[in-house]
Specification:
CATH topology: Cytidine Deaminase, domain 2
Number of domains: 1
Largest sheet: 5 strands, mixed
Number of strands: 5
CATH architecture: 3-Layer(aba) Sandwich
Shape: globular
Mean pLDDT: 98
Number of helices: 4
Bound molecules: tetrahydrodeoxyuridine
CATH class: Alpha Beta
Structural class: alpha+beta
CATH superfamily: Cytidine Deaminase, domain 2
Low-confidence stretches: none
Strand order of the largest sheet: 2-1-3-4-5
């Protein structure tokens, strides 16, 4: 898949600066690339009641879908700089609603430290009605 990996990671890192994570202190940013070349970003938004917490990936998806975008090429997710943060199970299934197995997922990190995978690898046999 031909797109600029590092700039998508950079967009996720910028979004990570807006993370609201006073409970876990685990700051996450995401950047979702549409098939027409636009980027929608998101960050995790935690809540005192814990369960309403929104992951960065679902924040980005909600922003894109609510503006009429439903076709995606890739998503970058960045948590702590020294690790490879992978989407949680709920986010994998939400991505699967709009994407097939070929969606590229970049898990970081930083521009220099990320792992590339696909939705098919992270969610084999995802659920569809
Ligand atoms: N989190 C995300 O935003 N995305 C992930 O893929 C993993 C987890 C958030 C949720 C919560 O605010 C914090 O990270 C710790 O679980």
């Amino acid at each position: 898949m031909d797109f600029e990996r590092k700039s998508l990671i950079r967009a996720a890192m910028e979004a990570r600066t807006f993370s609201y994570a006073p409970f876990s202190n685990f700051h996450v940013g995401a950047a979702l690339l549409t098939k027409d070349g636009e980027v929608y970003t998101g960050c995790n938004i935690e809540n005192s009641a814990y369960s309403p917490t929104l992951c960065a990936e679902r924040c980005a998806i909600a922003k894109a879908v609510s503006e009429g975008k439903r076709e995606f090429l890739a998503i970058a997710v960045v948590g702590p700089e020294d690790g490879h943060t992978t989407p949680c199970g709920v986010c994998r299934q939400v991505l699967y609603e709009f994407c097939d197995e070929s969606l590229v997922i970049l898990c970081g990190g930083t521009e220099e430290n990320y792992m590339e995978t696909t939705l098919g690898e992270l969610l084999p046999k995802g659920f569809r009605l």
